[in-house]
Write a structure and sequence with these properties.
This protein is of the alpha+beta class and about 625 residues long. The protein has four domains: about 300 residues, FAD/NAD(P)-binding domain (3-Layer(bba) Sandwich), CATH 3.50.50; about 140 residues, Elongation Factor Tu (Ef-tu), domain 3, CATH 2.40.30; about 90 residues, tRNA uridine 5-carboxymethylaminomethyl modification enzyme MnmG/GidA (Arc Repressor Mutant, subunit A, Orthogonal Bundle), CATH 1.10.10.1800; about 55 residues, GidA associated domain, C-terminal subdomain (DNA polymerase, domain 1, Orthogonal Bundle), CATH 1.10.150.570. It is about 35% helix and about 15% strand. The protein is built from 21 helices and 23 strands. A six-stranded antiparallel β-sheet has the order 15-16-17-18-14-19, with no helix packed on it. Helix 1 links the parallel strand 1 and strand 2. The longest helix has 21 residues. It is globular and about 80 Å long.
Length: about 625
């Protein structure tokens, strides 16, 4: 392939978190990648909070790492605070969160990209895709330069026809200080792809030297460190605190008095905003009975005075924002470095894509991240990784990677996107997964590393680390089922500290099932366990597998039962309009989404169990009506 003539295997458009994962995955698989972005100085930019993880999102990051992605590795290398959320709760809802150094994270990611000889960076606005016989053959940029390719991955974030709002003023931009991407939306429409609009926003940044931290509650990181990447020898770094303050009655009064200056409340913004991350004015209106809201003050990095005001996104005028901020305890003299703003942008409803994230209209065209109607760095990175893997599979005529709901949060995320009509920016939540006890952040490697290795993104060295760990877990599981703890006065004295007592000798596994007993207690009362000095990650897995054995088996049975509907494959060319005893509305939904199995059909909003029964009977009797 001649790169001097602008010929590439794959073009990735957009260098946010989705684009970085897509480009790196393609390049690691041997593809030659043109990586086009509006501004190469903003690669892996965190335009909102420079933080990775949190509830459900931490599981996505661990899954990305297990598949061979790089977000977890970058977060581990650049954190300035690590915190395990919900640590006192069950493993299904525990969530790691890292506050990152924004600039260091970008530099780390760019270093990976620039050190890969298969990636060709180019600062360019891609304005058109070239399609021949329903397949991607190339792309054009704003200067009319044509790039030949066999696949394109669009990860455009909020750039497509983006418009920023600060009060009643607006201008074209995808992010503050960066131009909008134009032309591409029209090109997609020309090729039969539907475009809609969504809205998101970001809070103001203030100068940390103008903050009175004595009026706030300090939020330190964890003393015991946890990491995202399953790679060994993660870096131990100095941690820095975040702070907590709250809105006041005066804050709310200023907001209510200025709603007439809000573009959202005045109808200037047509796109729907994220339900689970509303603006501060939206919170005040929707939750009028709440006298106050938490506001977290978090550092943007070690080399900047910028502090991020989490929970305070807004589209009110800049001068009103200053008034609002100065009513928060500790921010009475705050100097605003950057105002909050809202951004409205084009996206492609993902019901138009397959589970491989490829367009149903144009072969070789893939989508990842906010262009699919999602919000969040982690959701974007997960989609970018899958889109990148499948772009390589497409050009190699290989089987596509389509993760199931029972295998991963990534599979759940993608299935929700391609099956349900998303009305507001989608965010991953633990409650979205019916199998969340099986799909924990701690066992992502056990679930997905085999797949990452199969696709060449996990090297043999890391794969050996993985297999050694799994063997160690299996050995310890076998040992504790046989090793016995004797009843002694000394042992019961130790157990008494934890509210426990033994009347008889028992196997370690039996004792470990008790709620108050963990491996640290077993270490105290059993010399063999103590001498073994198991690594934390192995002890953690053995403890979870032992304590939750009954629950895990029950959920595995649920997976097996649900899998029965997956066995009923629906032909691609079925004509739903000819099926009797199903409502017209249901026929329209089935025809629009074209589910691949009865299981997917059952998850489409508005499709009733009776409809599934009719389809099942037709499939069993081979009475499928084809177009």
């Amino acid at each position: 392939m001649n790169y001097l003539n602008n010929e590439y295997d794959i073009i990735v458009v957009g260098a946010g978190h989705a684009g970085c994962e897509a480009a790196i995955a393609c390049a690691k698989s041997g593809a030659k990648v043109l990586f086009a972005t509006l501004n190469i100085d903003n690669i892996a930019l965190m335009p909102c909070n420079p933080a990775i993880g949190g509830p459900a999102k931490s599981t996505l990051v661990r899954e990305i790492d297990a598949l061979g992605g790089v977000m977890g590795e970058a977060a581990d290398a650049t954190y300035i605070q690590m915190k395990m959320l919900n640590s006192s709760k069950g493993p299904a809802v525990r969530a790691l969160r890292a506050q990152s150094d924004k600039r260091q994270y970008m530099d780390y990611m760019r270093n990976i990209i620039e050190n890969n000889d298969n990636i060709y960076l180019r600062q360019a606005c891609i304005t058109d895709i070239i399609v021949k016989d329903g397949k991607i053959t190339g792309a054009l940029d704003e200067f009319g330069i044509e790039y030949k390719t066999r696949a394109v991955v669009l990860t455009t974030g909020t750039s497509l026809n983006g418009k920023i709002f600060v009060g009643l003023r607006s201008y074209e931009a995808g992010r503050l200080g960066e131009k909008a991407a134009y032309g591409l939306s029209e090109s997609l429409i020309k090729h039969g792809i539907q475009i809609k609009k969504l809205k998101t926003g970001t809070p103001p940044r203030v100068d940390k030297r103008t903050i009175d931290y004595s009026k706030m509650q300090i939020q330190p990181g964890d003393e015991t460190l946890h990491f995202y990447s399953f790679k060994p020898n993660r870096p131990v770094r100095t941690q820095y605190p975040c702070y907590l303050t709250r809105t006041t009655e005066e804050t709310h009064n200023i907001i209510r008095a200025n709603l007439d200056k809000s573009p959202m409340f005045q109808g200037l913004i047509q796109g729907v905003g994220p339900r689970y991350c509303p603006s501060i004015e939206d919170k005040v209106v929707r939750f009028a009975e709440n006298p106050s809201h938490h506001i977290f003050i978090e550092p943007e990095g070690l080399g900047t005075y910028e502090m991020y005001i989490q929970g305070f996104s807004s589209s009110l005028p800049a001068d009103v924002q200053v008034q609002m901020l100065r009513t928060l305890p500790g921010l009475e003299n705050a100097h605003v470095i950057k105002p909050a703003y809202a951004v409205e942008y084009d996206y492609v409803p993902a019901v138009q894509t397959t589970h491989a994230l490829m367009s149903k209209n144009v072969q070789g065209l893939f989508f990842g991240g906010q262009i699919n109607g999602t919000s969040g760095y982690e959701e974007a990175a997960a989609q970018g990784l899958i889109a990148g893997i499948n772009a390589v599979n497409y050009i190699n005529n290989s089987e596509m990677l389509e993760l199931s709901r029972s295998s991963s949060y990534i599979g759940t995320l993608i299935d929700d996107l391609v099956t349900k009509d998303i009305q507001d920016p989608y965010r991953m939540l633990t409650s979205r997964s019916e199998y969340r006890l099986l799909l924990r952040q701690d066992n992502a490697d056990a679930r997905l590393t085999e797949i990452g290795h199969k696709f060449g993104l996990i090297d043999d060295v890391q794969y050996k680390v993985f297999t050694d760990k799994q063997e160690a877990i299996e050995r310890e599981m076998d040992r504790i089922k046989e090793a016995k703890i004797s009843v002694t006065d000394e042992n019961n004295q130790i157990l008494a500290k934890y509210g426990e007592h033994m009347d008889r000798g028992m196997k370690i596994a039996e004792l470990l099932k008790r709620p108050n007993i963990d491996y640290s207690v077993i270490n105290e009362i059993d010399s063999v366990t103590r001498e073994m000095n198991l690594p934390f990650d192995i002890a953690e897995q053995v403890e979870i597998l032992t304590k939750y054995d009954g629950y895990l088996k029950r959920q595995e049975m649920q997976v097996k039962e649900a899998g029965k509907l997956d066995k009923f494959k629906i032909p691609d060319n079925i004509d739903y309009s000819k099926i009797e005893h199903i409502s017209s509305e249901t026929k329209d939904k089935l025809a629009k989404i074209r589910p691949k199995t009865l299981a997917q059909a059952s998850r489409i909003g508005g499709v009733k169990p009776a409809d599934i029964s009719i389809l099942m009977v037709m499939l069993e009797r081979h009475q499928v009506l084809r177009t």
